Amino acid sequence: MAVNFKHDGGFFAPMRFEAQIEDCEVEGEIPADIRGTFYRSAADRRFPPLFANDTPYNSDGAIDMFRIYDGNVDFRSRYVRTARYDAERKAHKALFGLYRNPLTSDPSVRNVSHNTANTTPIVHGGRLFCMKEESPPTAVNPHTLETIGEWDFDGAMKATSFTAHPKQDPVTGEMIAFAYEAKGLCSDDLAVFIFDREGKLTKEMWFKTPIVSMMHDMVITDKHIILPTTAMVTSKERLDRGELHWAYDEDAPTYVAIIPRDGDASDIRWFKGSTDQHMVVHTTNARTEGNKIIMDAPVAGGNFHPYFPKLDGSFSDPADYVPTLRRWTFDLEADNDTWEEEILFDGIKVTTFVRMDDRYLTKPFRYSFMLMNDPSLPVAEAFADTLAVRVSNAIYRFDHDTGKIDKFYAGDSHGMSEPQFIPRSANAPEGDGYIIAAVNNFREMKSEVVIVDAMDFAAGAIARIKMPFRLHMQVHGYWASAEHLPF
Q: Using one digit for the tens of pLDDT, what is the confidence trace for 255-272?
């Protein structure tokens, strides 16, 4: 099927604005024990794209901030002032071409960073970083949202790229990250980094990959680093032909790199999966138990990225490739290079957006929170097509021990964004806290942020932060407690 990226002027049309609101309207009551900042990385085009077949992932980056304290909320939204943003602002038009293909950009900017900083916000060492995996992270002031600039960790990081999904070890405080195509576009170089809790690079490992592939997410245990590839491939020939960076190769196997955290590049072990285990876009959690590594993640057996074509140029119908929540078990003492797979949840319209109580990263855990598209929930007829195709309408709490599901549903004209978990207190049991998520109300053409008791989804939202306009299209979010990031 053809994919048309022309904006239709509806809810998902570009916002092209920055805003600041003090004392946001709150419906209900925000619990007093919620004190911190909810960040949202967003993709929002300031100018029409140069190519109609470009992807939404190539939009300008914006960062939204909801600061919550004593039941009050202040909001601020700013574009990330990347080199790309500045160049196009000066020209008053789009200059940058197809997603991750600088050869399709205007000649005046081909040597300018194509970084959009539009994917994931994360706070580490007191700094707010806006991530885009083709580039180094962009540092942003966590209080004012003023852009500081691309960050190379005081000159210590030499890679040209950086994952959008670094992991923060809740025990050691370390941040672990990686970079693929780390020495430039289409290179088979992979780098792994370990930073201390202050953001100082303490260790790096470089090695080659068996396939030049999108590697969007990772997972860690207390002893290992796990890096899955996908079947999204690229080549210099694709870029030379003026095509999108990625294409789906249905014959490409999935590879998983496992590296001891206390080892080096010579200790890497590559596992190889089948072609029905392609798409690990996001991960949930993992742990090391003896000689085994157990990883939970949503996995699709085909092209779950409809914005990227197959190798032959045709497009996939994402409805044919619904992810399932799977458990992969790797035996480090086995003679073979495969793994065992178990289907944990074979639900309807599972997305790859899944979050958990991050205090339990690297540990045995029980709950995850999944963004879902559930057709069994009531949908207003006027918004049925939008809710069925473009967005999710529910958040599921999934019990990995029992398989039990609890659902949160915001309304019959509401689309959900990725949730974040807020612990009720630092020492609260796993899952005891709140879910915070941005919600779009298509009936009112406005957005809101809902807060839900994570252990009582049936009670519905205990508070809604009502916005007088629609928000930017969110990619990922991050919750920073006031203890973690004082203000």
A: 999 999 999 999 999 999
State the pLDDT confidence band at 451, using cuts at 50, 70 and 90.
Answer: very high
> What number of CA atoms fall less than 13 Å from residue 272's CA on the CB side?
9
Tell me the pLDDT of the chain averaged across its residues. Answer: 93
Q: Residue 302: CB partners within 8 Å, gap ≥ 6? A: 248, 250, 276, 278, 279, 316, 320, 321
Listed ranges 295-304, 328-337, 341-350; the one with the highest mean pLDDT:
328-337
What is the model's pLDDT at position 349?
Answer: 61
| Residue 390 pLDDT | 56
CA distances from 476 to 41, 207, 325 (A): 6, 29, 19
Could you give the count of Cα atoms lying within 13 Å of 464 in the half-sphere of its Cβ?
Answer: 15
Sequence-ordered list of residues with C-beta below 8 angstroms from that of 138, at least 6 positions apart, any chain: 61, 80, 82, 115, 117, 129, 130, 131, 132, 147, 148, 149, 150, 151
Q: Does domain 152-346 have CATH number 3.40.50?
A: no
Closest CA to 45 of 31, 55, 35: 55
Residue 274: other Cβ atoms inside 10 A = 11
The residues spanned by each domain of the chain are 152-346
Per-residue pLDDT tens digits for 55-103: 999 999 999 999 999 999 999 999 999 999 999 999 999 999 999 999 9
Q: CA 416, CA 391: separation in Å to the nearest integer?
A: 7
Cα gap 189→215, rounded to integer Å: 12
Name the DSSP class of 103.
G
Please write the tens of the pLDDT for every residue from 467-483.
Answer: 999 999 999 999 999 99
Cβ–Cβ under 8 Å, residues 173 and 220? no
Rounded Cα gap, residues 241 and 307, in angstroms: 18
E strand or H helix that includes residue 192: strand 189-195
pLDDT given for residue 5 in this prediction: 36
How far is residue 288's CA from residue 168's CA, in Å, rounded to a whole number? 16
d(CA 299, CA 342): 11
Instruction: Assess contact for 105 and 117: CB atoms under 8 A.
Output: no
